[in-house]
UniProtKB/TrEMBL annotation, chains A, B:
Gene3D superfamilies membership: Nucleoside Triphosphate Pyrophosphohydrolase, Winged helix-like DNA-binding domain superfamily/Winged helix DNA-binding domain
One Pfam family linked to the record: WHD_NrtR
InterPro entries: NUDIX_hydrolase-like_dom_sf, NUDIX_hydrolase_dom, WH-like_DNA-bd_sf, WH_DNA-bd_sf, WHD_NrtR
Record protein name field: ADP-ribose pyrophosphatase YjhB (NUDIX family)
Source organism phylogeny: Bacteria, Pseudomonadati, Bacteroidota, Cytophagia, Cytophagales
Organism expressing this protein natively: Runella defluvii
Nudix hydrolase domain segment(s): 20-151
CDD domains: NUDIX_NadM_like
Length: 241, 241
DNA sequence: ACAAAAGTGTTAAAACTACACCCATGG
DNA sequence: CCATGGGTGTAGTTTTAACACTTTTGT
């Protein structure tokens, strides 16, 4: 598949300006009540005394996603989380220190897996989406707003809420999560009917007894979940528009 | 809003590797029958004797979107087209000449506005989405596939098809467009009912007489269209999930 | 025994799908 | 006059939204 490149072509490359490339992650977590975002006061390599997203630099030996995964791991100790590219920000003065193009990712994590000791080092703190600090670094506020928008958009059409919950969870927990995402309330009969109609959940024998009556635990049917995720585009492009 | 940055912080910036940043555009056009993508053999600054997307380099005095708009203008003579960021590609060896991060945009253009003379210079050519050349530069094939996927996804949920048609068009034309996008056929009664139920179209007095009977021309109600586009997220996040 | 949260069913309205005939005109 | 493509309506089915009472159990 190799092609011959003329000297001229290669020369055009070397004339070009190069830019710093950063990765920033909007990390969502759900504490059972509120949807939260993880902010840091100071990344290991980062710099400034303002709340900001977790970020870092693109490494020469990594592609974008890998770099984002590495940074997430360094700062939270988490691996194999749901991570999706959100948008790339490149305004000239978005970073006043030096022009930087930042590729933003958003992550959905299960807070039970989150090891707070790892990120204490980085002065990380969870903030409810409705109570963000007033001052946030650079354009990170914009990134956060876009991430929330996209999370809502995706969650309305695809079953990705599970990513924010423990392996076993109850329907009322799931409903609280969706209510936190959409900042609204749902009718529980309609909600559970809709969720169960996907057949993505397996009802377990056990109950979680944090309430008086206790609620049945459910688990994601991983097989169907994968298929479902892979087919959502078919699902959307099928109907008579 | 200025903050004090320590010397240390700024030093961390200067240690970092910088990268080439490119912009590539997937340009969609509709010829009344097929959905097409515009490919070039050789951009002005580009290089290689293979079909590729229109692309160029990020300029120091432009943000990403502006650079993408400029490149599109240089190569097609088009301004103010529908342009949306698609995804950022950054695999290590995606460009074998030098490591380049490429921000891909997709554009929807009205072929009536397209001045083919401008892009003859660049050896541009329209290809039906179903008949792409076998060999396409770098990862541009991947970009194209993702763009088609996203176009279908968005078109199924949002009324953006209009961007590909002239100001005045008929329902049958619009239907052909959607059939080309989704590579399927629709029932014309259901289709027109669905389209008209949005109240986004204004029926004009004139008819287009390319068929024997002639079909009524319609125009987008720009006011409602803007509102609709701005509110689609509400629309999606509202339903009881 | 009662408060608190879980679980469950019905009905009316709206949306969707499938389907067939008449209309206007240019050749 | 007839072939071509444009235009329109209805009925059955599915999906959605609104709504209230019973169950369990810890205190």
């Amino acid at each position: 598949m190799r092609k011959k490149y003329s000297m001229l072509d290669i020369a055009s490359y070397s004339k070009q300006t190069k830019y710093l490339v950063a990765l920033d992650s909007i990390i969502f977590g759900f504490d059972g009540n509120q949807l939260n975002i993880l902010l840091v006061k100071r990344g290991p390599d980062s710099t400034i005394d303002t709340w900001s997203l977790m970020g870092g630099w693109l490494a020469e030996n990594e592609n974008l996603e890998l770099s984002a995964e590495r940074i997430l791991y360094e700062l939270t100790g988490l691996k194999e989380v749901y991570l999706e590219q959100l948008y790339t920000f490149g305004d000239i003065h978005r970073d006043p220190i030096a022009r930087t193009v930042s590729v933003a990712y958003f992550a959905l994590i299960n807070v039970e897996h989150y090891d707070s000791s790892v990120s204490e080092v980085h002065h990380a703190q969870w903030f409810p989406v409705s109570e963000m600090p007033a001052e946030i670094l650079f354009d990170h506020r914009q990134m956060i707003d876009l991430a929330i928008q996209k999370l809502r958009y995706k969650a309305a059409l695809h079953p990705l809420g599970f990513e924010l919950l423990p392996e076993k969870f109850t329907i009322p927990q799931l409903q609280k999560l969706y209510e936190a995402i959409f900042q609204t309330t749902f009718d529980k009969r309609n909600f559970s009917r809709k969720i169960l109609s996907t057949h993505l959940l397996v009802k377990l024998k056990e109950k979680q007894k944090s309430s008086k009556k206790g609620a049945y635990l459910y688990q994601v049917n991983e097989e169907k979940y994968k298929t479902y995720s892979n087919s959502f585009l078919n699902f959307v492009s099928n109907p008579e528009f």
